[in-house]
Amino acid sequence: MSDPHPTDNVSSAPRWLRLFAVAAGAVVLGSLASTTAMLLAGWRYAPERQFSVAVYLEPDAGTDQREAVQDALGGLPEGTGVRLETREEAYARFRERVANDPDQLAGVDAGSMPESLHLITNGRSFDCDPIPGIRKLSGVDRVRVVMKPLAGRWGAEVAC
Fold this sequence. Notes:
By secondary structure, this protein is of the alpha+beta class.
């Protein structure tokens, strides 16, 4: 006698295993397709970076002008606190930096170094919106924003 269903006795992979393999393949293909689409669209992971904000004061800046700049810097997001660098501290740092070149030290003393206020902020990017307002404050000579280097990534000066 002939069997009407000859393939029923043949043992193939269980149905649940085939469904699992199809589902796993769909997940892998979907992940690959969405990642490819995001990369082609220009998305990249941006790690959190540190930004150093330095405000150099004019030589004749007074205490009230320094405090106004300090208050403005305190309004920047996620700041570590505003630190004052005195002329003497700036001169000591300058001497360390150019210790091997006495020609650069000639004619420079603590009185010729500017006072400055420094702040470190953290973030994926830096919002330059408050910087023009700080730059316009009385007693401010210049403002410098630097993105610090991070594990294989270059640092850079941020043009605000």
